[in-house]
Amino acid sequence: MRERIEKANQQALERMFAAEPVLVDVRPAGEAMAGLEDRMVLHAGPPIAWERMCGPLRGAIAGAAVFEGWADDLEAAADLAASGAIAFHPNHHFDAVGPMTGITTRSMPVMVVENRTFGNRAYCTLNEGLGKVMRFGGNDTEVLDRLRWLADALGPALAKALAVAGGLPLKGIVARGLSMGDEMHQRNVACTSLFLREISPALARAAGDPKSLASVLEFIADNDQFFLNIAMALGKAITDPVRGIEGSTIVTAMSRNGTDFGIRVSGTGDDWFTAPVEMPNGLYFPGYTEEDANPDMGDSTIVETVGLGGFAMAAAPAVAGFVGAGSAADAANYTHTMYEITAGRNPDWTLPSLDFAGAPTGIDIRKVLETGIAPTINTGIAHREPGVGQVGAGIVKAPMACFVRALEAFAAAMGVT
Amino acid sequence: MSEAAVLNRVRPGFYLDSVALMRHSQAVAALPGVETAAMMIGSESNKGIMEDAGLLADEGRGAEPNDLIIAVRAESAETGEAALTEAEALLDRPAAAGGEAGAWNPKSLETALETLAGANLALISVPGEFAADEARKALAKGLHVMIFSDNVTIEDERALKEEARRRGLLVMGPDCGTAIIGGVPLAFANEVPRGAIGLVSASGTGLQEVSCLIARGGKGVSHGIGVGGRDLGDKVGGLMTLMAIDALDADARTKHIVVISKPPSDAVAKTVLARVAESPKTFTICFLGLDTIDLPENAVLAPTLEAAAAEALGNPLSELSPDEEAKAAEKAKGMDVGRRWIRALFAGGTMCAETQVIFRAAGQNILSNVPIPGALPLGDAIAGHSAIDLGADEYTVGRPHPMIEPAVRNDELEVALAEPDAAVILLDMVIGHGAHADPAGDLADVLKGAKSGGPVVIASVTGTEDDPQVYSEQIVKLRMAGVMVAPSNARATALALAIVGHLA
Amino acid sequence: MDVNEFLESDVRVVNIGLESFARELGERGVPTVHVVWAPRAANARIRDLLAKLGS
Do C40 and A416 make contact, defined as CB atoms within 8 angstroms? Predict the structure, then answer.
């Protein structure tokens, strides 16, 4: 049994490490993603009904309904959503991921990341920047106007540039970002800069007029977290080929919808194992406290699933400071601890402060339960009321109960009782 | 006392190592109005200990091994509640993390082995309920194992040792406080020079006393292998004793082997002695208290630890010197009428047994909380000489072992010093790694407060010059404090008996 | 390594439990790694499954 599982996990790791994720396109979700129909909203996390959704998720859905023209105003949109006239599905069921609320609808532009080794594609919306944004439940005119600009200006500009460039390989950008202080969840300033450096010539070549080019460059340059959504699509593109390896105890997705935390495990296919989400532990922006915080949310935990984010904290001492730990040594300790629950080390993504040890990769549910160590996730913290936006950032633990349920199901699948 | 309130609070899923918990327990017990306090994880054995100590309430009874029980007995419910709150505050105070902020330690054996290449020994001191699991994992990784923890079931011990034998690995312990491997003292052990004498011991303090006597006698130890107190019992059958003898037999450095244990059953003794008979090396067998048994030709019997060391050194067994005899007579002469009992207060359990053996051989009755065959169980009703092992559970509930922290013994010492019919107080001072930094200095502080004309205090020091506390410095402190110092526990016991002999 | 090889080698210790042992051994220059140990959170059934699944 042990050897069978080890072999399966080795195969899972090999597939992760063999991945060649390339950003190839930006297109409206309805065109890019098969099956994404009208009156369909994709959200972060495992499946959830309207009744159990948290405030920011409902707020974002209402905003998306207005954005799509399904309702005239937010109130009507909320009524529509409650009436059952809108279908809700997890992004993960459509090869996609989305940060925080993770809302994806037909008209929103999504980035397309192709894993050239396996031929699969993964999708993620464009990062909207900070402040009032839909991913934190924002839904007013400012939010919707920005979404329109993303769809009408930024998306097409990036699409043209990527066509000119012939796609943008991402693995190397992440590797360089790790050596420049990013962990790709809480901190993306290096990768965003590297991305901008790589894409700028193509953007310029493909651009129609200097003014619109300037606004595109300005938008990306003003948003340190622009690369987060790219990293998420990359994470999804890497983990999807790992799904459904019989006998593998490696986690292929971790995700939250603000109510439930869900994980998927390779050997149990596409089943979700859920438990109530926990509250993040972190620092709050001036004027906000944990009273204001919404429980943990978002598909962004896909980056931890591939060994980045909280797992690569050693690369990003600045982030460790954000989550209450001060020193570079503290940052390294987060990563050290994640080695305890992972099956391997990424040969391409190395951590300079740990003598270039590879990032801890491939969460083994057995190790999580054996050691009692929950995966550490770096996360933004949303306000519990829709529309307010981000109020802080910190770390959160994946609930143990998810792993208990997953192990029970895995054991059953292996015929072990 | 009758109105004392016993209060418990349970913290689910909280873990701290037992030394840290005991430190906190002491601090809470020292709060005004608190009689006693203990913080222990809610394992069955701990709950039993706390029940016996009158510290368990319903809340604590429901605790599980993953929970921490905070228990206090206080003069009122109010002071008790305050103490519980203080206890929780202590637990929540951020740990100093060993002084190295940010130092990283692995949380699993697997990662530990990646961190320390070539690791060959697992030293296990987790709570007993969990020790066997950890030991099993260590054996599976090819490590030799030293289990310091007690409360491992005998079934687990047997299974572990059988597994270890299959793998050709040592399992020292459980309840193994002492080992010296290749000159390196482990857990509670002393700095002894390397030499040609190999030791196999079921008892930790027995191994310490014999290895120190050998060191001070000018010879050295090749290896000291602790096998645990139950290894020579019928259930384990001497599995590790036999493996240790095999190893020392094959060890080129070892010329002579000393086996130390309480007397085993006839069957186990036979097995062990049959193995001894096959060896080309010479043996000293110390089945503490046993002075006749059929031995193979290459072995001699030593009834005490001191005798075992003397045999190993090739020295004649020492008697009290004329000087010591004279001193004993002089001490007896100056003593108040009515003083007649010896109060022996031990940190080392095997020293407690050795003293009883010497009493028995001298035809003297003795009471003990851990009586050897022939000694009497301790009871309030009977007056007489007594030997107390203060490392026994009833004294160490939530408190550090007296070798680490003399407070437990000091309480009893104060009582004995004030006792009008106490003639001699007999003490062992165990130094070395793991032990208190200055037991003699601590004793001197206690004696400073004693009235003159009290009982004579006699002590021996188990230790060497190279120990952190330094043998000779401890002796000087004891002498300055008016303590008679003997070169071994056996001689200290003989001296005590000589004094009371002169009183009659 | 077998027992005699062990006795001939330098002791290299994995300390599981009391931190003071690791600290003290470390100070004496004995190569030591301390494992931060805590009781498993998992219940008996999960422990049993883990054992069967080769963990």
Answer: no
Local mean pLDDT, 10-residue blocks, chain B (504 residues): 80 77 84 89 83 89 87 92 89 52 76 91 91 94 94 94 96 92 95 97 96 97 96 96 97 97 93 97 95 94 96 90 92 90 95 96 94 86 87 82 92 93 96 95 93 92 97 97 96 96 84
From chain B, the residues in CB contact with C32 under 8 A are 116
Query: What CATH code is carried by the domain that includes residue B173?
Result: 3.40.50.261
Q: What is the CATH number of the domain that holds B31?
A: 3.30.1360
Indicate the SS3 state at residue C48: helix
CA dist B384 and B367 (Å) reads 7
B303 shares its domain with B376 = no
- Asked whether residue B103 is assigned to any structural domain, the reply reads no
Token pair 């054995």 is found at B45
Residues in C lying within 8 Å of A, measured between beta carbons = 38, 40-42, 46, 49-50, 52-55
Q: Using alpha carbons, list the distances in angstroms from residue B252 to A261, B249, B280, C7.
A: 62, 8, 12, 11
Nearest to B104 among A336, A371, A373 (CB): A336
- Give every CB contact of residue C6 below 8 A, 6+ residues apart in sequence: B120, B121, B144, B170, B181
Of the CATH numbers 3.30.565.10, 1.25.10.10, 3.30.360.10, 3.90.1710.10, which one belongs to the domain with range A25-234? 3.90.1710.10
As a whole number of angstroms, the distance between CA A399 and CA A305 comes to: 15
- Would you state the structure tokens that stand for residue B113, as one six-digit string? 């082995």
In a mutational test of the A interface, the residue from B100, B107, B115 whose CB has the highest number of chain A CBs within 10 Å is B107
DSSP A324: T
B353 and B397 share a domain? Answer: yes
